[in-house]
Design a protein that fits this description.
This protein is α/β, with parallel strands linked by helices and about 300 residues long. It is built from 9 helices and 12 strands. The chain has helices spanning about 30-35, 50-60, 70-85, 105-120, 145-170, 195-215, 230-235, 235-240, 255-270, and strands at about 1-5, 40, 65-70, 90-95, 100, 105, 125-130, 175-180, 220-225, 230, 255, 275-280. It has an 8-stranded parallel sheet, with helices on both faces. Strands 5-6 form a two-stranded antiparallel ribbon. Strand 8, helix 6 (about 195-215) and strand 9 form a beta-alpha-beta unit. The chain is globular. The relative contact order is 0.12. The model is unreliable at about 5-25 (pLDDT under 50).
Length: about 300
């Protein structure tokens, strides 16, 4: 069953509270299995890197709670995950991060965690993968709300997710939080000012949270991918064949599984690590500029 958090489009937002459309009620056995086995909550997990992160944790025996924005995509993803990983439990939520460009949907997050509480599900690991890519934002052309939308999604909404997940981790004696960040937090790219700013701000927030939550045995870290081979490569092969960032020191670009491995390392193996960054970009961060091979 896929649970939906959001607002019906035919009603005015200010009069609506978030809702969940329950397709079925879960049995006590379902909740028991979630309690016995480790559980991870992964945001933005219907496509691309999010899928690989789900695959990694599920293959390691974790039950998976995941989110996406589109109910149909969440439903389709859940069906695929259940078929691929029959030995773990999968639970998908359709949830929006924002009410509008200026406003985080606080109620949707609250209802999400309340529903997990009702089912007796505790996610000991939170992976914050969902992001607004903030494409094509030009300083003299785009309205301020375009900038705000990216910051509110990538920083403010993630903070609110951490607040609610962290509260439950504190009650259970600890947990892990992993941000999927970006090497653009250090290396800017054109017409992505909001995205770059959000990722830089997210890293500062990660370190501050690691400091504040450490006393509760909650570790907070970040994975910094560079370019990743996603569906965008297939849609625009000519561009990605020549884009400078593909020319890494090791001669290869990461796939989603590489990012998933790094996320899992922080969650499962880095017992004494918090406030740390792990860059997965083929070495792009170490070079002043990419060495583009001469055409033969």
């Amino acid at each position: 069953a896929v649970l939906h958090a959001g607002r019906p489009p035919h009603q005015e937002q200010k009069k609506i509270t978030p809702y969940f459309g329950r397709v079925e009620r879960f049995s006590p056995l379902f909740s028991t299995i979630f309690c016995i086995m480790k559980t991870v909550l992964i945001t933005g997990a219907c496509i691309n890197t999010g899928v690989d992160i789900v695959h990694k944790f599920a293959s390691e025996g974790y039950n998976v709670v995941f989110t996406g924005r589109d109910p149909e995509k969440v439903s389709a993803a859940q069906s695929k995950y259940e078929a691929q990983f029959p030995n773990v439990k999968i639970l998908g939520y359709a949830i929006n991060s924002l009410v509008d460009e200026r406003t985080v949907d606080e109620q949707a997050v609250e209802v999400l965690f309340e529903d997990l509480d009702e089912k007796g599900i505790f996610a000991e690991t939170l992976v914050l993968n969902a992001a607004d890519q903030g494409l094509g934002i030009k300083i003299f052309e785009n309205p301020l709300t375009d900038f705000m939308k990216v910051i509110n999604t990538n920083v403010v909404w993630n903070y609110f997710m951490v607040e609610h997940a962290g509260k439950r981790m504190k009650e259970h004696g600890g947990g892990n939080i992993v941000f999927v960040n970006s090497n653009t937090a250090y290396r800017a790219i054109p017409d992505r000012v909001a995205y770059v700013a959000s990722k830089g701000g997210q890293l500062g927030m990660m370190r501050a949270l690691a400091l504040d939550l450490g006393k509760y045995n909650i570790r907070v870290n970040a994975v910094l991918p560079g370019m990743i081979k996603t569906d965008r490569w297939e849609k625009n092969p000519d561009f990605y064949a020549k884009v400078p960032s593909r020319f890494t020191p090791i001669g290869d670009v990461a796939v989603g599984a590489d990012i998933a491995d790094a996320v899992y390392h922080f969650a499962a193996h880095a017992r004494n690590t918090t406030g740390a960054e792990l860059t997965v970009d083929g070495g792009n961060m170490i070079q002043l500029y990419p060495i583009v091979p001469e055409e033969k």
